[in-house]
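ugh ok fine here u go
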Amino acid sequence: MEDLVNNKIDRESLKPGDHIYAYRLAGTYSHHGIYIGGDRVIHYNRTRDANKWNRAEPCRNCKLDRNHLRGVVKSCVDCFRKGHDLRRFQYGVKVVRYLASRHGTCTTGRADPPEVAIRRANDHLDGHGFGDYDLFENNCEVFAVFCKTEKAVSSQAWAAKSVLKAGVKIRIDRLLQDVLVHQGQEKHDKTKQRIDSTLTSISSLKELIANLQKNQAADSGEEVMEITGA
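structure:
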């Protein structure tokens, strides 16, 4: 049985070549993989510093060593879903459906035949790998979508980056308004110029603050303090 609203499916509805996913951490993100049949899923995990403190026993069903869960792996469905509901990623959806859906659940793109998706997944499992894991650029959703379409994209990563960018912009706008009110137009323009010149190479608000702090220290001759959080 399949829930067409939430993409939820039961185990009996699984078909080889399905792109499936399951939510983790109270639904804050989803883990994706390709079901290849025989109760097995090929999925992509962190390639470095993953499960560092995990001391779980290997799965009795698929023998997956969860203490060394790295890169592209093959596991049973239970190891993949970790107790959460299974869901089927939807391909070729209409624009209205896409706009109404949660990120990381569907795409307007068309999927290749199931056997092609399985072959691609197995190719990456058998020694080719899928590169270094990157939360925003090369994650489990990217892997699954690539297996289905040979295109690398993650809508949940795109959404996360958009939220981060929006948060940074709000803080920058607040800073510039404060500088304008309290220090005048000239200081405002100088601060904005510094921010604009560094944004292209800055990947986080923490880095931006550290960069601005160095500029401020250089202007005043003060020692730069270490940024411990932002």
